[in-house]
Amino acid sequence: MRLLLLILFLSLLVIFPSFLYLNYSVIQTPVEPPLSRLEIDNGPVVMPHLKNSTIKAELGQSSWKLLHTMMARFPEHPTQDEKEALRSFIYLFSRLYPCGECATEFQAILAKHPPQVSSRETASQWACAVHNIVNKRLQKEIFDCGKITEKYKCGCDDEKIHKS
Ligand SMILES: Cc1cc2nc3c(=O)[nH]c(=O)nc-3n(C[C@H](O)[C@H](O)[C@H](O)COP(=O)(O)OP(=O)(O)OC[C@H]3O[C@@H](n4cnc5c(N)ncnc54)[C@H](O)[C@@H]3O)c2cc1C
After folding, report:
1. Whether 75 and 147 share a structural domain
2. Rounded CA gap, 82 and 37, in Å?
3. C-alpha of residue 119 to centroid of ligand 1, in Å
4. N or C: which end of the chain has fewer CB within 10 A?
5. Which DSSP state fits 74?
6. CA angle, corner 132, sides to 129 and 137, nearest 5?
7. What residues does the ERV/ALR sulfhydryl oxidase domain cover (predicted)?
8. Best probe residue, ligand 1, of 126, 134, 142, 144 (max atoms within 8 Å of C-beta)
9. Does residue 119 have its Cβ closer than 6 Å to ligand 1?
């Protein structure tokens, strides 16, 4: 009986500290710090290659339409927050553009030609210029950026922007 109690006591001596240690190491497991907005904006391309050239072209036409129209409706005198929102959008767009190889090329363009977000005019001209860089690489016609406001209408003459 004494021997049994001794064995029980000794095994408790071993089990109890190891249980404490396990709990401690779970608590101590380092939690990864959250990424900063800058790290998220400047991360690598997320999407895989897009092989289908028809889908690639359709996606390109729609995306350029979205980008140029966004610039045409961007405030003439944006606040700091609005400027940062557009800059962030463009960098995230370059990460998440659904054609991976296009996104990689676009990130290289952004590295040389960072988004210009100080006004509607500068943003529109910047988008036109980067589109022309892509056009040149794909051996497409170069667009006259002097005609950008004719082509992409703001459409906001008689509207108020609703801000909550
Ligand atoms: C960010 C991005 C990167 C891309 N990268 C690639 C790539 O690496 N490889 C690839 O195969 N495809 C890529 N594409 C798609 C490609 O740019 C075209 O959209 C696609 O080839 C279809 O071309 P498109 O001739 O119909 O005219 P698009 O280039 O799609 O242009 C649509 C219309 O916009 C007008 N336009 C043309 N140039 C300008 C300009 N500079 N400013 C304003 N308006 C203009 C014209 O009226 C034109 O018809 C990319 C698209 C985007 C948005």
Report:
1. yes
2. 15
3. 23
4. C
5. S
6. 135
7. 52-152
8. 134
9. no
